[in-house]
Design goal:
about 35% strand; 7-stranded mixed beta sheet; disordered N terminus; globular; about 240 residues; alpha+beta
């Protein structure tokens, strides 16, 4: 397999993106998922009022692919939900391979990232926008994928990356999808306690077999979503139950 990009060069493309304000800086990962979920007969990059929808399916469902925080979607999703159903696609990288190129597009090396994502990473996206899944007609779909992150040794990256810039992300493999359309979907995946059972961050982390910081973010978001509730404090720890 050739390691030479088919374009006129990664550096030229990176400079074009940086120099053209207003051109959507869309990763290959975002583009692939946008077309995949919009489907045959649908439309992409459609103007809807003062917003642009990533996609509108043939059945009228709005598609938004969001790789980061949901906070920038607050106004857009609310506007789309007033017109029809909305599906937010959120990719989570279970594994990531990093490829570094020189300015001519030659592959210098590739390596595996030590960071591995999980379904619990969805709460990073929801942390600043826990109200979005509560909007009527909104479905959140988390997709577990492998990605390839392309970087260029162009001298413009951060000091930590030794002048290497991130350039693109590509979909390498699609593993599974998890659909959250109702409150019960969140309970099923994230709250391993029966109705009436009390739990804290510590007991939740232990039973769910996750690190404490994942539990803290999950319980914060799920409380804001009114899926669980705080009932009292015991020794400075909040006690929760399912709502």
């Amino acid at each position: 397999m050739s390691t030479q990009p088919k374009s006129k060069g990664l550096l030229a493309e990176a400079q074009r993106r940086r120099g053209n304000i207003g051109i959507k800086n869309e990763s290959s990962l975002h583009k692939t998922l946008k077309f995949q979920y919009t489907g045959d007969g649908g439309k992409t990059e459609e103007n809807v009022g003062s917003f642009v929808a990533d996609g509108i399916r043939k059945d009228g469902e709005y598609i938004e692919v969001q790789t980061g925080s949901f906070a920038p979607l607050k106004k857009k999703v609310k506007a789309f939900a007033a017109l029809g159903k909305v599906r937010i696609i959120h990719p989570i990288a279970a594994a990531k391979k990093i490829e570094v190129y020189d300015i001519k597009g030659k592959l210098l090396y590739r390596r595996k990232s030590p960071v591995h994502g999980s379904l619990w990473d969805i709460f990073d996206a929801l942390l600043s926008a826990p109200e979005i899944p509560l909007i009527k007609g909104v479905t959140v779909e988390a997709v577990i994928v492998d990605i390839t992150e392309k970087r260029i040794k162009d001298g413009k990256g951060s000091r930590r990356r030794k002048g290497i810039s991130k350039f693109d992300k590509e979909l390498a493999a699609f593993h599974e999808r998890h659909v959250f359309g109702k409150k019960s979907d969140y309970l099923k995946y994230f709250i391993p306690f029966k109705k009436g059972e009390e739990f804290t961050v510590s007991s939740h982390a232990q039973k769910a077999n996750i690190k404490r910081h994942f539990s803290q973010k999950a319980l914060y978001v799920l409380t804001k979503m009114k899926i669980i509730k705080r009932i009292r404090k015991e020794k400075q720890a909040w006690v929760y139950v399912r709502s």
